């Protein structure tokens, strides 16, 4: 007798895929927010009251006056018009709204599935952890914004990296869990996939590249050179400040961080190409082809971002493709981590 697939894990998997797409949308808007220098336009964290933007002229003026008190306005945007302020306010507001929407998109269906006892054994804690991670992400986002409200004209690149990497970790967790549930729908006795030692190495290499990318964004390091493969006619760029030691240079110097991000990308690409090769050998041709396509697109967009002098929409596409790469890599690593994985 033919076994019928379990519809409940399949529905849960589709739900998590939808939330993953929403996270990618948040990453996209986050990139626009950063590149338009909009992130400090909302100077307070109001998780509930902040859902609505200012609705009257007086409310807009009050928000603008709050922004005029911070260093970014005083040192960079002095004389900005109210209309221009509304433009940067929009992107930060939309970014925060989408973040809240991700939280609701996880919590409300999760509560529904729990009430209907539709969550498979062993998955409840993981789904709650993913929902909690959204709340943590919101707190990290405010922690990041707060770093630019008192003495700085921008946010800390360390906090920006924590904010972005937490979002990408959430994305990877959503994809991994969705894949586990999709397998469980077809194979009721299936066990969750495990991350092998070799797979953890791929994750570590990719993590370093994502961290360097976040630091590059936070320090505006993409602007220090607009040529490729050389940086201002040099392989190792001039202008690196070594005076405070190697560690501070690696973590704070925009020339060195740009250089490292540019060339570590080849290590990340090699690791992902080897992953694609292994996937192909295991019969996962679709995952292998998808990974190759996204890696090629990401490398090309990275080069274009540099040679266009950080064109906003190309840079946004670079960030979005990076998020898609995380999702595709997570799906590929999941396939390899399945017990007796086969298509």
Report on the structure:
This protein is an all-alpha fold and 343 residues long. The chain has two domains: 1-191, no CATH class; 193-343. 69% of the residues lie in helices and 0% in strands. Helix 1 (7-35) packs antiparallel against helix 11 (312-337) and helix 6 packs antiparallel against helix 7. The two termini are 22 Å apart. One of its GO terms (molecular function) is heme A synthase activity. The chain crosses the membrane at residues 12-32, 97-115, 127-145, 157-176, 197-218, 263-279, 291-314, 320-337. Pathway: Porphyrin-containing compound metabolism; heme A biosynthesis; heme A from heme O: step 1/1. It comes from Sphingopyxis flava.
What are its keywords?
single chain, 343 residues, mainly alpha, 2 domains, 11 helices, 0% strand, flat, disordered N terminus
């Amino acid at each position: 007798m033919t076994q019928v697939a379990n519809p409940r894990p399949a529905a849960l998997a589709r739900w998590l895929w939808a939330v993953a797409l929403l996270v990618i949308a948040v990453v996209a808007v986050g990139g626009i927010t950063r590149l338009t220098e909009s992130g400090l336009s909302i100077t307070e964290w109001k998780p509930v009251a902040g859902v609505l933007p200012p609705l009257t002229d007086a409310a807009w003026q009050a928000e603008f006056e709050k922004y005029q008190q911070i260093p970014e306005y005083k040192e960079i945007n002095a004389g900005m018009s109210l209309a221009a302020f509304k433009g940067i306010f929009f992107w930060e507001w939309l970014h925060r709204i989408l973040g809240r929407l991700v939280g609701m998109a996880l919590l409300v269906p999760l509560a529904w599935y729990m009430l209907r006892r539709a969550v498979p054994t062993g998955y409840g804690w993981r789904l709650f952890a993913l929902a909690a991670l959204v709340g943590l992400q919101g707190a990290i986002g405010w922690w990041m914004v707060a770093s630019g409200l008192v003495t700085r004209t921008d946010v800390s690149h360390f906090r920006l990296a924590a904010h972005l990497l937490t979002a990408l970790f959430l994305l990877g967790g959503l994809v991994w869990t969705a894949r586990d549930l999709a397998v469980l729908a077809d194979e009721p006795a299936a066990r969750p996939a495990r991350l092998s030692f070799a797979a953890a190495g791929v994750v570590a290499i990719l993590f370093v590249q994502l961290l360097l990318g976040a630091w590059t964004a936070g320090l505006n390091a993409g602007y220090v050179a607009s040529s490729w493969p050389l940086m201002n006619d040099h392989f190792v760029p001039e202008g690196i400040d070594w005076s405070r030691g190697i560690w501070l240079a690696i973590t704070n110097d925009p020339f060195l961080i740009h250089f490292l991000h540019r060339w570590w990308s080849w290590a990340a690409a090699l690791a992902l190409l080897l992953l694609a090769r292994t996937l192909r050998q295991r019969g996962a041709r679709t995952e292998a082809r998808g990974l190759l396509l996204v890696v090629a697109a990401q490398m090309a967009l990275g080069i274009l971002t540099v040679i266009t002098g950080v064109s906003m929409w190309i840079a946004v596409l670079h960030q979005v493709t990076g998020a898609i790469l995380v999702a595709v890599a997570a799906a590929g690593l999941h396939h390899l981590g399945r017990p007796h994985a086969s298509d």
